[in-house]
Amino acid sequence: MHKLSLRHIYQIAEREQVFQDAQDALLNVPGHAEYYGKEIREFRDRVHGEPLNAGLRSKYLNYRMYAFQTLEHLPSVETVRVLADFLDDTEWVPWSKTDPASPPVPLASKSAATLRKLITGVPKSSSSFADWHQWRDEIRAGQSTFRFKGSEVRYNFAGPVAERGERERKEGVGESGEERSRAEKDDAGAGRDGEGRAVWPILLAGGAFIGALVVWLVRRGR
Q: How far is the C-alpha of 66 from the C-alpha of 84, rounded, in Å?
């Protein structure tokens, strides 16, 4: 996916279409992002279980690099959820106690950098983990949303989120919705008694009777 996105590698007219087809195919696979999240964690645990295996260490670093580069091109809610989960992996863990030099960059840093390329409205720094945790927690709590670059649709971790005005129109939420709801109830209830019977004919008949009675009394008084 990442190499297909690079124009200087595949300088052919069909490159963008091939990239789009590959992206669509991957996005339609359930678990497309969870797969990479699981593989990265399992590979990391295996490497730390064999700290002296330099070859395995190199393979792990290469794999996670390509995995994050692939996730960068998979704009889905699942991808953002997987990357957000990596934000908890903030420690610079040495390869081993006897080899503390050059520990790998925390997965949280790799995740934050990938999120910055994928969506808008995220913290500016890839290393300020407190800001990233606040951003993620607000989305989890339903207090905030995110947008993919190039799209105006807002999402949370459950899926697309309707704009406030649209949501109010659909659900009758908010002051205007409540007023409309009350007005509709008033309109529906107007002209009916407690059992739902129409009362307008009774009122009209009563008014006519009172009017006739007044006229009769006036004439009689003369």
A: 18
- What six digits make up the tokens of 146? 């995110």
DSSP 5: G
pTM equals: 0.68
Please enumerate in sequence order all residues whose Cβ is within 8 A of that of 62, keeping only pairs 6 or more positions apart, or say none.
Answer: none
Query: What residues contact 206, with CB distance under 8 A and at least 6 apart?
Result: none
> Which two three-digit tokens encode residue 40?
């990265």
Residue by residue, pLDDT tens for the chain (222 residues) are: 566 665 556 567 777 888 889 899 999 999 999 999 999 999 988 887 786 777 888 899 999 999 999 999 999 999 999 999 999 998 877 766 666 656 778 899 999 999 999 999 899 876 679 999 999 999 999 999 999 999 999 999 999 997 654 444 455 544 444 444 444 444 444 444 444 444 334 333 344 434 443 333 444 455
DSSP summary character for residue 4: G
SS3 (DSSP) at 214:
helix
What is the DSSP secondary-structure string of 32-71? HHHHHHHHHHHHHHHHHHSTT-HHHHHHHHHHHHHHHHHH
